[in-house]
Amino acid sequence: MSGILIIAEQRRGELRPISLELVTAAQGLRRSGEEVSVAIINSAPGNFVEALSVAGVDEIVTVEAASTEFDPDIFESAVGALISQHEPEVVLVAHSVDSFGYAAALAARLSLGFATDVFNIERVEGELVATRGGYGQKVNVEVDFPGKSVVLLAIRGNVFKAPEQSAAPRVTAFEAPPPHSRATGREFIELSAGDDVDMSAAEFILTVGRGIGEEAKVAQFRELADAVGATLGCSRPIADAGWLPKSRQVGQSGKTASACKLYIAMGVSGAIQHLAGMKHVSTIVAVNTDAEASIFGVAKYGIVGDVFEVADELRRLF
Amino acid sequence: MKILVAVKQVAALDEDFALRDDGRNVDPDFLIRDLNEWDDFSLEEAVKMKEAASQPVEVVAVSVGSGEVDESLRKCLAKGADRAVRIWDPAIEDSDSIAIARVLAAAARREAPDMMFAGVQSSDQSFASTGIAAAAFLGWPHAAVVSHLSYSPGATRAVLRRELEGGLLHEVEIQCPAVLTIQLGINTPRYASLRSIKQAAAKPIEVLSLADIGLGADEVGVAGSLSRVRRMYVPDRGRAQLIEGDAAQQAARLAEIIREFKGAAS
Question: pTM score > 0.80 for this model?
Answer without folding.
Answer: yes
